[in-house]
């Protein structure tokens, strides 16, 4: 009976039923079978209100949607061109850098491809980059800033694992830079081989572009400076970000009108609300799993079979890659991370390092079929089939896998800045 | 008959959207103002609002569940639509009906469970902040679950009547 219900829920989960209701149903059913009053599910969900960090998600997402709605993306592309345009493969590197920066400042909320892809893809093709290369680049760039602060998935991992979020932000920086560098090398190689033209760069042009993008460039300084100086807590830095972006877009740039704000608020709240209720339902279901000692059982099962840390890390990566293919990044974090964390700690894996491994894996999952958010968004945006886009992304995924291997087996890459 | 019913439901939903928009914008504005006030009070006046922390945490709770209710009306929940992508029109329709039905039923059960939860909290008492009892802020659960159940139910009914994917 229970097995059948589990299978039915699994089928519903991949049939487009809201995941938060699938998790809620799982929690309700498991409480019911344990003979516990169903209103206890609500007590678990109510624990959401005990968490002071969740508001940061709302603020960062709102700031991200505001930036995406305005013209920040275009200015960033111009600045990156003035910086890197002269390199062979310059425009491809421009694409990498501006996408990563934009993804980071918009909290990796999935707006990068929509906001930047439309500018970058035609430009790449015009400069004679092969079409498949260009499509793959733009598609896989949509999640490149995932490891940079203040990405929402990092915050979610921090909430779930109770690791320090500022430290997680620091831990993600070098691994993110590593992935970008490796991809950049590939872009240079492609640029040389396809004999793409480069852009002449002048110092004056660079100063002008930097001047135009100065408010966007200062944004990370405001956010990170506030957090790491100890001046602001995470949620306060997020609130300051909102006001900073509001002032810029409404008063300085004037690229957003006051009457657009309600629409952007509603968009933000539906996105973040959908995300937080998943966390709430997962809290309820996880409390059942903990009550049934499932994490302990998983730990014993794995410890009996995997004796060495290296083997465990390899298996963890394979597992997370599959998870990344099947689940969206948020569900993967709220459901899988609580189960894995105790196991990983038994193998002496640092909580921060584990977080970076999680995110690096899930970043790859963004562009892999069958459930890759980048693929869906790019397919809608560029009107290409998902199959074609996933084939075009393959070389980039291969490079990200190399980066993942380095990140996994050289913990120092993640932990150097933290120490 | 059915078309007038459908359009009446749609009109009511649209009207409610305006109320909802206003509520969400107001809530976000209040939260942001409260966060900013806290920073200014602390840094420049070395003081703070005692209730601000609880207000912010519960404000996010409200925002999340009201946002989820809104997402139910616009079909913007986080989902995995693997199976529907593999199927043809008829199969997609069947799955969409099934998942709306499932969503509606789960929301009804959640409504019922949260009703019991709020009743229980009413009896035990306790105040969150500024003299507001816990059960007041917790009414967001039954309210949003009822709204979600109605919306999923409405989508299901309209979909079945018009033969379109709910």
Draw up the topology in text.
The complex is a heterodimer of chains A (419) and B (166).
Chain A: H1 2-13, H2 19-33, H3 39-46, H4 54-69, H5 72-84, H6 90-105, H7 112-126, H8 131-141, H9 152-161, H10 165-193, H11 203-212, H12 214-228, H13 234-252, H14 261-291, H15 294-305, H16 309-326, H17 329-346, H18 351-365, H19 373-382, H20 386-409, H21 412-415
Helix pairs in contact in A: 1-2, 2-14, 3-14, 4-9, 4-13, 4-14, 5-6, 5-11, 6-7, 6-8, 6-10, 7-8, 7-19, 8-20, 9-17, 9-18, 10-18, 10-20, 12-13, 14-17, 15-17, 16-18, 17-18, 18-20
Chain B: H1 2-45, H2 52-74, H3 82-86, H4 89-124, E1 127-129, E2 132-133, H5 134-138, H6 140-162
Antiparallel strand pairs in B: 1-2
Give keywords.
heterodimer; A: 419 residues; mainly alpha; 2 domains; 21 helices; 0% strand; B: 166 residues; 6 helices; 3% strand; elongated
Spans of at least 5 consecutive residues with low confidence of chain B: none
Report, as a whole number of angstroms, the end-to-end distance of chain A: 51 Å
Point out poorly predicted stretches of chain A. Answer: none
Rg value of chain A: 22 Å
Give the overall form of chain B: elongated
Mean pLDDT of chain A: 87
Structural class of chain A: mainly alpha
What string gives the helices and strands of chain A in order?
HHHHHHHHHHHHHHHHHHHHH
The share of residues in helices of chain A is over 70%
Rough outline of chain A: globular
- What is the count of helical runs of chain A? 21
Order of helices and strands of chain B: HHHHEEHH
**Percent strand of chain B:** under 5%
Overall strand count of chain B: 2
User: Which quaternary structure do these chains form?
Assistant: heterodimer
- Secondary-structure-derived class of chain B: mainly alpha
- Number of helical regions of chain B: 6
Largest sheet of chain B: 2 strands, antiparallel
């Amino acid at each position: 009976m229970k097995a059948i219900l589990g299978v039915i829920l699994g089928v519903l989960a991949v049939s487009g039923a809201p995941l938060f209701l699938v998790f809620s149903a799982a929690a309700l059913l498991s409480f019911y079978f344990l003979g516990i009053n169903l209103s206890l599910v609500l007590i678990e969900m109510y624990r959401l209100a005990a968490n002071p960090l969740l508001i940061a998600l709302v603020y960062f997402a709102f700031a991200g949607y505001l930036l995406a709605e305005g013209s920040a993306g275009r200015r960033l592309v111009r600045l990156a061109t003035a910086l890197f345009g002269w390199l062979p493969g310059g425009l491809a590197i421009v694409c990498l850098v501006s996408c990563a920066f934009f993804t980071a400042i918009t909290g990796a909320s999935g707006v990068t491809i929509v906001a930047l892809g439309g500018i970058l893809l035609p430009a790449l093709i015009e400069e004679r980059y092969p079409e498949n290369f260009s499509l793959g680049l733009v598609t896989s760039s949509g999640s490149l800033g995932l490891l940079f602060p203040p990405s929402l998935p990092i915050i979610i991992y921090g909430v779930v694992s109770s690791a320090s979020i500022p430290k997680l932000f620091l831990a993600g920086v070098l691994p993110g830079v590593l992935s970008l560098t490796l991809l950049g090398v590939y872009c240079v190689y492609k640029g040389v081989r396809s004999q793409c033209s480069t852009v002449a760069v002048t110092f004056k042009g660079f100063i002008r572009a930097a001047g135009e993008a100065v408010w966007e460039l200062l944004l990370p300084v405001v956010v990170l400076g506030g957090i790491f100086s100890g001046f602001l807590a995470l949620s306060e830095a997020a609130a300051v970000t909102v006001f900073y972006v509001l002032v810029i877009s409404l008063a300085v740039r004037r690229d957003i009108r006051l009457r657009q704000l309600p629409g952007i608020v509603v968009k933000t709240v539906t996105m973040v609300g959908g995300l937080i209720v998943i966390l709430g339902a997962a809290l309820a279901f996880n409390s059942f799993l903990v009550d049934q000692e499932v994490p302990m059982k998983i730990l014993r099962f794995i410890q009996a079979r995997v004796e060495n840390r290296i083997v465990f890390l390899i298996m963890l990566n394979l597992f997370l890659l599959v998870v990344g293919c099947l689940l969206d990044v948020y569900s993967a974090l709220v459901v899988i991370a609580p189960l894995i964390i105790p196991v990983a700690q038994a193998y002496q894996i640092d909580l921060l390092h584990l977080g970076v491994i999680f995110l690096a894996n899930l970043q790859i999952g963004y562009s892999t079929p069958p459930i890759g958010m980048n693929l869906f968004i790019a397919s809608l945006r560029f009107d290409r089939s998902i199959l074609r886009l996933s084939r075009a992304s393959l070389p980039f995924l291969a490079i990200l896998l190399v980066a993942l291997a380095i990140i996994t087996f050289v913990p120092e890459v993640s932990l150097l800045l933290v120490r | 008959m059915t078309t007038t019913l459908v359009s009446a439901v749609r009109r009511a939903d649209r009207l409610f959207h305006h109320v909802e928009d206003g509520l969400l914008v107001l809530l976000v504005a209040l939260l942001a103002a409260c966060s900013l006030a806290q920073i200014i009070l602390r840094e420049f006046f070395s003081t703070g609002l005692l209730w601000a922390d609880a207000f912010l945490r519960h404000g996010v709770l409200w925002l999340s569940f009201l946002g989820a209710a809104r997402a139910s009306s616009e079909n913007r929940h986080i989902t995995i639509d693997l199976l529907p992508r593999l199927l043809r029109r008829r199969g997609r329709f069947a799955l969409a009906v099934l998942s709306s039905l499932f969503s509606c039923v789960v929301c009804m059960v959640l409504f019922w469970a949260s009703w019991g939860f709020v009743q229980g909290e009413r009896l035990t008492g306790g105040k969150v902040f500024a003299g507001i009892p816990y059960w007041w802020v917790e009414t967001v659960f039954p309210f949003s679950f009822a709204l979600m159940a109605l919306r999923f139910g409405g989508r299901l009914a309209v979909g079945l009547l018009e033969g379109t994917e709910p």
